[in-house]
Design goal:
24 strands; 361 residues; five-stranded antiparallel sheet; mainly beta
């Protein structure tokens, strides 16, 4: 299913640049704003709504970004998008939706309604294939799947049994694999949970963070080779409504085979979103692969340091539900980050937002 839309240049949807920003990050911040594009939730392609962007990766060979939608085959087929995003140091010039590609099962059949929840995607630089993660099938169990660029399933990655739903064990509803990223050399694939396994402890609170596991896979064998515990920050703000505020891992981006960026996304009713980005390192962390339960266990979690925060008003932006991060092309010798939001297919106030940042770690 192919459709090319020139969304910024041709149709003039909302775009911003660093020049229009009235609010600057603190001097020590490693990021500065290049630009922003916001697409309305009403946007549809051949009758299927565009949105639900929950994972983003870039193919350096053709310059395209691949964005997975977390549509549970409810609004349309499970799918990923091929995007072209053009920008310079002066801002974003164009966003094209180049193609919509259905994601399919082993025999080429589509996923049934509710039997998949795509949340992360990563381009394998060694094979030129995609790996994407599902938070849960009809039984609530997660999956990590390798697929061709045509969307057809090639194989499934092996997961430890303690990730599967049991009596008080396994992944939490809507809090399984959110982060997925290959090391730049393709030697390892990292997969991060949004929150703790049910046997590992509670979700994040205002007082304490959650213990999210990170699996390291050998992409050649599709088997886990190590596992680490990552402690999220506590919920940064209390909600002003009945729904409690939350905080969890929404995306990761490998810097090399031992370090990766971690996006922690929080929402508090009455305030909005707080996006914190950390750098995590394997150095000194305990390999917990094979440990079914971490609650009350002795181990060393991943070391982390705070890099920057995006919240309401940062760079003059209205930050939405950021669930994706990847590297874009270098601009004037500087690295760039592209972040994207999941609009939840919610027409009441949410949009698909792409934010491009210059990154000087």
């Amino acid at each position: 299913m192919t459709r090319l839309l020139h969304l910024v240049a041709a149709f003039g949807f909302a775009a911003g640049s660093a020049a229009s920003s009235a609010i600057a990050q603190e001097a020590a911040s490693p990021v500065s704003l290049i630009g922003e594009v916001r697409l309305p939730t009403a946007l549809a392609i051949s009758g299927v709504p565009f949105g639900g962007i929950s994972g983003l990766t870039r193919d350096p060979g053709n310059g395209l970004f691949y964005a997975v939608s977390d549509d549970r085959a409810e609004y349309g087929p499970a799918r990923y998008y091929k995007l072209r995003l053009d920008y310079s140091a002066d801002g974003i010039t164009r966003l094209d939706i180049v193609d919509t590609v259905p994601l399919r099962k082993e025999k080429g059949e589509p996923f049934a309604r509710g039997d998949v929840d795509p949340e992360g995607i990563s381009f394998d630089p060694q094979t030129g294939l995609l790996v994407w993660a599902s938070e849960g099938d009809l039984a609530g169990n997660p999956a990590i799947i390798e697929a061709g660029l045509d969307g057809n399933l090639r194989r499934r990655y092996d997961l430890p049994a303690y990730y599967l739903r049991g009596s008080g064990t396994g992944v939490r509803d809507n809090a399984a694999f959110e982060g997925l990223s290959h090391a730049p050399d393709g030697s390892v694939l990292f997969a991060a949970l949004e929150s703790s396994l049910r046997q590992d402890g509670a979700s994040a609170t205002l007082e304490e963070g959650s213990l999210a596991r990170v699996l390291a896979f050998d992409p050649k064998t599709a088997k886990p080779v190590a596992e680490y515990a990552y402690r999220t920050a506590p919920v940064p703000r209390a909600a002003k409504g009945l729904r409690p505020a939350d905080n969890g891992v929404s995306a990761i981006l490998a810097l090399d085979a031992r370090r990766f960026l971690v996006v922690e996304r929080s929402f508090a009713a009455g305030y909005g979103n707080t996006i914190q980005v950390f750098e995590a390192s394997l150095d000194g962390a305990t390999d917990v692969l094979g440990r079914e339960r971490l609650a009350d266990a002795a181990f060393e979690p991943l070391a982390k340091k705070h890099l920057f925060t995006l919240e309401e008003g940062t760079f003059g932006l209205d930050i939405d539900n950021i669930e994706s991060i990847t590297f874009g092309p270098d601009i004037d010798g500087r690295r760039t980050l592209v972040l994207a939001s999941d609009n939840n297919f919610n027409p009441r106030g949410q949009v698909t937002q792409f934010v491009v940042l210059a990154f000087d770690p």
